[in-house]
Amino acid sequence: MKAALFQGPGDLHVIDVDSPSAAPDELKIRVESCATCGTDAKIFGHGHPRLNPPQIIGHEIAGEIIEVGKDTSGYSVGDRVQIIAAVPCEECWACKAGKQGICINQTSMGYQYPGGFAEEMIVPAAVLKANGVNIIPGDLSFDEASVTEPLACALNAQRLIHVGDGDTVLVMGAGPIGCLHVRLARALGATKVMLADVNGGRLHLSADVVKPDRAIDMSSEDLAAIVLEETEGIGPSVIITAAPAGVAQEQAIAMAAPGGRVSFFGGLPKDKPLITVDSNVVHYKELILAGANGSSPAQNAEALALIASGKVPVADLITHRLPLSQVEDAIHAVTSGEAIKVVIKPQGV
Ligand SMILES: [Zn+2]
Ligand SMILES: [Zn+2]
Questions:
Q1: For residue 338, what pLDDT is reported?
Q2: Of 1, 235, 308, 325, which has the maximum CB count within 10 A?
Q3: Around ion ligand 1, which residues have CB less than 5 A away?
Q4: Please, what is the angle between helix 38-46 and helix 327-336, to 10°?
Q5: How many CB atoms within 10 Å of residue 28?
Q6: Could you tell me where the beta strands, DSSP code E, fall in the chain?
């Protein structure tokens, strides 16, 4: 079968590999859709500390079961399924506390296990143990189901800062994750949702699709003044930074409403992890700052249901569909901001 093998930074090529077979405690799927994201771009550019090449990457996975290990239960050949990306151990203190996103023994599809940029893929026993295989409901497409995992990560972040009824939300960063945050905040009850980006082209592409109440082009507009004006002089009750920029995190703390909640959703480059914060702003405004890392299997199931019910539509976020042979083009389309979500179709477009 064909698979996209990552062999080191800048080295991602589609080659022929042996088709894997499922052990008794595993499933095998035919990959129908595997979406690309910023993490794939990061891996392609710089590698990843938890990933030892060579490895088949790709972690936003949907497909059809074609082989069922004899010791598994609950799944049949022909089932259409979505697979989690981050695999919790279900044994450590974090997992036992329901905080699988910060599992200390976390493994991931496309890192420790061969991922979804391949015609076929094994669903490892650890994924089954963690309840990480979700049946795709009704006639929801594989493409839409493949966007479940990033939505689950957004859901994890918004739950940690309790986004809900009446919130005024500013999302900083208009990439695919920013778009998902806009839609999710609305689904969770936010009354006003604003979207800002320093890249005017990307902002307009995304704003045309997700239609925030206010799109703010930070390259030409005064973000702080606009959000104040849009929130009756109070500031947003929720700010989510979905960009790898320390300055966005610093601005978020400065702009949030008193009592506001700030999510540092996007991580910073590992050589630039420090920011400068007026700690007294956090102190006197009683801000709540939260990180966000991945998602739990339960959040994946919930995200898939949000997509299937239409509460968080994603079909229109998928701007490009490409064959496996163009996986590198897909990654460039994501990085340049010319695409919102790009789905790789290993069985052909
Ligand atoms: Zn991803
Ligand atoms: Zn764990």
A1: 87
A2: 235
A3: 37, 39
A4: 110
A5: 20
A6: 2-8, 11-16, 27-36, 55-56, 60-68, 80-83, 86-87, 107-108, 120-123, 133-135, 168-172, 192-197, 214-217, 238-241, 261-264, 288-291, 318-323, 341-345
Beta bridge partners of 170: 194, 239
Specify the CATH architecture of the domain 154-291. 3-Layer(aba) Sandwich (3.40)
Query: Which one, of 60, 50, 48, lies nearest residue 8 by Cα?
Result: 48
Please give the C-alpha separations between residue 266 and each of 21, 78, 104, 145, in angstroms, as whole numbers.
Answer: 36, 36, 20, 22
The secondary element (H helix, E strand) that includes residue 340 is none
- 38: CA distance to ligand 1 center in Å? 7
Nearest Cα to Cα of residue 334 among 229, 178, 123, 120: 178
The rounded distance, in Å, linking the Cα atoms of 290 and 240 is 10
Whose atoms come closest to the Cα of 86: which ligand? 1
* Closest-approaching ligand to the CA atom of 331: 1
Looking at all shown ligands, the one closest to residue 130's CA atom is: 2
DSSP assignment letter at 139: T
Structural domain boundaries of the chain?
Answer: 2-147+314-345, 154-291
State the DSSP code for 117: S
Q: Assess contact for 48 and 84: CB atoms under 8 A.
A: no
Expressed in angstroms and rounded, the spacing between residue 196 Cα and the centre of ligand 2 is 35
CA of 93 to the centre of ligand 2 (A): 7
- What residues pair up with 123 in beta bridges, in sequence order? 27
Residue ranges of the chain with per-residue pLDDT less than 70: none
Residue 74: burial class (beta carbons within 10 Å; 0-12, 13-18, 19+): exposed
2-147+314-345: CATH topology: Quinone Oxidoreductase; Chain A, domain 1 (3.90.180)
pTM, whole model, 2 decimals? 0.96
Name the closest ligand to CA 99. 2
- 40 alpha carbon to ligand 2 midpoint, in Å? 24
Write out pLDDT tens, residues 215-225. 999 999 999 99
User: Cα–chain-centroid distance for residue 84?
Assistant: 11
pLDDT of residue 245: 95
Smallest-distance ligand from the CA of 89: 2
Q: What is the pLDDT, as a whole number, of residue 12?
A: 96
Domains 2-147+314-345 and 154-291 agree in fold: no
